Amino acid sequence: MTWTLQNISNYGTSTPAVARTAVQGKDIVQFLGGTDVQKAQAIEALFALQKRLIRCVSIHEGIDALVRKAGEDLKSGKLNFQPDDRVVRPPSIPDLEGVAESFLQGAKLAISAATRLTEPFYGEHFGHKLNKLEAWAEKKFGQEHAYVGFAKGWQPWVKEILALRDAIDHPRKGPGGTLHIQNFTVEFRPNEAALLAPMWWLEGSPRIFIADSMAHIIEGVIRLQEDLLGSMFHVRKQFPFAVLEEIPPDKRDPQCPIRLRVGLNAEMTKKLSEADDRP
Q1: How far is residue 113's CA from residue 127's CA, in Å, rounded to a whole number?
Q2: Per-residue b or e along 158-194, where b marks 16 or more CB atoms closer than 10 Å to that residue's CB
C-alpha cells in the first residue's frame, strides 16, 4: 500500500497531539492481529483523531498566548489597576464564548474519533457513548475483558467533559445545567487589584481557568486513545514476546515525544542478553 503524505497543518511531530496519535499509533498497530486493510483503516482513524485534536490545540494555544501576554503586561506595568479607578479596562479575548464553544464541540468530536479504533477490527464503533462500548464488550467477551475495563474506567471523565458541551446545547436550570464563561476580570483586594484569567464553570461547580482546562482535556483525549490502543495491543498482539513500554517524560525526544513503544518482555530481553554474553 502506498501512503500519501501531505502537510495539512502547521503542527509537526513535536506537538504531542501529533506524536502520540498517528505517529505513535502506526507502529503499535503493526503488532495487532488483523489484515493489512484493517491496520490501514486503524491508522486512518488515528489520523482523523489527530486532525480533530489539532483544532483543539490551535484554540487552546490562542487563548493561552493571550493569557500569558496579559500576565507579562501586568508584571511590566502596562496594566495598572487601582482600587479607586472609576473605570477599569482589563484585557479581553474577543468572542470568548464562541471560541470556547468551538473547542468543546471539537473535544466531543475528538472523543468520538478516539474510540473509532474498534471499528476496523470489530465492525463496531460507539463514539462517545462508552456505556454502549462497555455493554457490547461485556456481551461479546465477558465482564473481565480489557475493553470492559477500559470503558468503565473512562466513562466518568468523558461524562464530565460532555457535560460542558451539553450545557451549551441543552441548557437547563439547576446544578450542572448551565455553562458560565467569564473573560478577564479584575478583583480588588485590600491592598491590591488582581487580574483573573478567563474561567468557565458549570452552575453550582467550582470555577476553572479555561486555558488550564483545555490543556487537561487535550491530554485526556490523547490518553483515552492510548489506553484503548493499549487494551487492543494486550488482546490482539501477534507476538507473545512483545510488550508495550511507557517512555518516561524526561526520556522522550522533544522533536517527537511519543509516550508508548513496543519492546521485548523480560524473558526475551534476558535471552538476548545471555546470547550477547556468550564468547
Answers
A1: 7
A2: beebbebbbbeeeeeeeeeeebebebbeeeeeeeebe
Q: Is residue 199 part of a domain?
A: no
Contact assessment for residue 249 and residue 233, using Cβ atoms and an 8 Å cutoff: no
What cell does 30 get? 503493526
Phi, psi of 19 (to 5 degrees): -60, -40
Give the integer Cα–Cα distance in Å for 38 and 120: 5
In a domain, 198, yes or no: no
CA gap 225, 28 in Å, rounded: 12
Has this prediction a pTM greater than 0.85? yes
Domain residues for the domain of 136 are 16-79+91-173+210-277
Number of Cβ within a 10 Å radius of residue 253? 11
Establish if 101 belongs to a structural domain.
Answer: yes
Please give the Cα distance from 217 to 63 (Å, whole number).
14
Q: With respect to residue 36, please indicate whether it lies within any of the assigned structural domains.
A: yes
Q: What is the tally of structural domains in the chain?
A: 1
**Distance (Å, whole) CA 19 – CA 261:** 12
In 3D, which of 86, 93, 98 has the Cα closest to residue 70? Answer: 93
Cell of 48: 482523523
Q: How many CA atoms lie within 13 A of 201 on its CB side?
A: 12
Distance in angstroms (rounded) separating the CA atoms of residues 229 and 207? 33
**CA 1 to mean position of chain CA atoms:** 30
pLDDT in tens, 115-167: 999 999 999 999 999 999 999 999 999 999 999 999 999 999 999 999 999 99
